[in-house]
Amino acid sequence: MQGDEKSRASGEASGQAEAGGIDRRKFLKGGAALPIGVAGAAAGTSTGASAGFSNVQLMKDQVRTDLFMPEEHWRERMTAPDDGKAYGWIVDTRRCFGCHACEVACKAENDVPLGNFIRQTIYHDAPRESGAVARIMVPMACQHCVDAPCIKACPCGALHKGAGGSVQVNYDKCSGHASCKDACPYGAIYIDPVANQAVKCHNCTHRVDEGMEPACVSTCPSDALTFGDLNDPESKISKLKVTLESEDALEQIRPEKKTEPRTWYATDENHRVAAFESKLPAEGQSYHPDAYSVYEWQETTPPHGRVPHPADEARKNQMDGEGR
């Protein structure tokens, strides 16, 4: 992107933030006042500070609309190709035993650098009434939302819908602005430290187009990952989805965000989404090696995503200093 275009895009994003009542840089530093409508609905006051709530708590049920570009900038990119397909995922938390094979396969397939992750298995130890502990292992990646906030926030037009509605990145356009990462409610995007571009799951389109499964799916030894075309009633995922729905065994991550994710989680009484949701990264965060620490598995992890890692904070400070 040329300098004048980047400045114009930044100006538009800034204008959107002012219109929404939230300054983006102040929000990232945790010091922004929220719109009266938001704070009032939560606590009957005009600011989070006076209500005794943090910004994250007040914004928990919302997406970062203050980052969104004007609709004419993303409307076409939000429209999937007319290929008749709707790719989706079912993650069976009851079958995953945390071997990390999906992560290794993903890293090998996509040349993901050390310390970064397109997908990551989250561990959570949940105490049971009997006194025992239920260890939950959850493979996480992009949710491939129908109403994807990352596409709406991208100022350079790189995020778009690909085959089957897969949310993808056009690397000929991505400038590493990182608004997509800041807008993602699931922490599913990271900024490549060398290329300075956004990286995320793209449903292994290069494999799927050749009739193969995504690398993680074909590698999983416990059959915990199911991928396929939801528009095909005879596909494995469609049949499995019908069965699990009849058993009331399907949940989604942060449905309150209303992003219409195309990923579902098969759960039971020992593997509820509510038990591990607080371990997942949130807006402005990414999967991080800290998740492998046994101290991160315990139930007392801070709610709604881990405490931001110093690496995340350092990047935010760097980008703010560059006038992002």
Automatic annotation (TrEMBL):
It comes from the Bacteria. Residues 10-20 have a biased composition (Low complexity). Coiled coil: none annotated. InterPro entries: 4Fe4S_Fe-S-bd, ET_IronSulfur_Cluster-Binding, TAT_signal. Residues 1-21, 297-324 are annotated as: Disordered. Residues 309-324 have a biased composition (Basic and acidic residues). Residues 87-117, 165-194 form the 4Fe-4S ferredoxin-type domain. GO terms for molecular function: 4 iron, 4 sulfur cluster binding; metal ion binding. Keywords: 4Fe-4S, Iron, Iron-sulfur, Metal-binding. PANTHER family: PROTEIN NRFC, PROTEIN NRFC HOMOLOG. This is Tetrathionate reductase subunit B. It comes from Saltatorellus ferox. The gene is ttrB_2.
